Protein 1
Amino acid sequence: MPAQQLLVLASLAVVFAATFAVATLRLNHGYVDIAWGLSFVAAAVVSYALGAPKGPIPLVATFLVAAWGLRLAYHVGRRNVGKPEDFRYAHMRKSWDPKTFHLRMAGQVYLLQLVLAFLIVWPTVRTNLADAPSWNAGATAAVAAWAAGFLFETAGDAQLARFRADPANRGRLMTRGLWALTRHPNYFGEALQWWALFGLALAAGREAWLVESPLVITLFLLFVSGVPLLERKYAGRPDWEAYRRRTSIFVPWFPRRSKDGPDGSAAPHGPGAGL
């Protein structure tokens, strides 16, 4: 692997290693969800500094990745800092052998997220390590798609936060606003942003095989840590089953007609929470 790419990988390793140390000392591995967003920012900024590319496309790509990563880190940080450890990591702490807990946590959570982050941010890294052509129609379309995904993710999170802040909604499911169009608007918006960043890499003349990036994040959200985790959490509740029958699982769509009444709650956010 070329030296520049190794340095980008090293920047990711520094973020996750520092987070592991802090989380271990504070007995709260929920901090890794904050590191998830920040690791992308580190990779994008470091690759741009190393490549010093010409043309506006790499700079825009770096800005978009930073905007996504910083917003997500802030959003997750508000939920985790000063709060009890996220239920997923607390369950691991209780169920795993204490003798191997730290080693398993380092490998199965931190190292896994490092590898995933490297694969997902790769189109932007490739864009930043080489000069790009002048701005073009493909770049404009990609930025527009990214903006739509960013607004979808941000609005979905904001709607859920407002819903949860109202004591009258305790124990109910969030099914209004964007949550009436998809059961996971934040995840859909996140995936759309990475498809857009892949499109931006194509507009910069990068290779089509970089499609691995949006495929990895989309498949991970749909089948590994995002959607399945939350769908299992609520499975069996009558209000959830009614909501599930009438609402698209991922891609936003008009609700199916249903005789069921309103329901009510939702989902965490982040790499393994919802990331």
Note: Residues 261-275 have pLDDT under 50 and may be disordered.
Protein 2
Amino acid sequence: MNKAILSIALLGGIFFSTNVAAQTETSGRDKVYRATHTKVTELKHTKLKVNFDYQKEQMNGEEWLTAAPFFYPTNELTLDAKGMLIHEVALDMNGKKSPLKYDYKDDVLTISLDKTYQKNQDYTVYIKYTSRPNEVKQQGSAAINDAKGLYFINAQGKDPDKPTQIWTQGETESSSAWFPDN
């Protein structure tokens, strides 16, 4: 019985040592630390209605975003919205829209809510916008070197050997180039 416990302890020690060694092997590499932002809002549901302007390579969108404070009460919603035109922001209460004040600068949309909401108290914000992916200035990551998020391929149909298509890409931070996101 004591031999079995000793064997398990030694085996566990070997695994522990291996894990530590594996972690220290990569510690010398150049790494970019990118901390996540403090979570203020819990996004619960996003509904999008979109159409595309192929000539301008833009997307017209409407978004219904249901959210609630993550923990602390708040009267504000902050979203990333890269390279967009914001046309309307409103609180949506069962289809009835009530305009909300907002500020949009440096690709950040800050919305003043109608009141202070408590944790688990849902609200839905409606946003009408135009996504302009060619206006996005942010660079991508090592794997995906731009942050456009929305791509128009052969949008004007000038290349007969290429189909006209649109595709989206959200990793790692590019969703906010085609819809306001947290």
Note: The two ends are 56 Å apart (CA to CA).
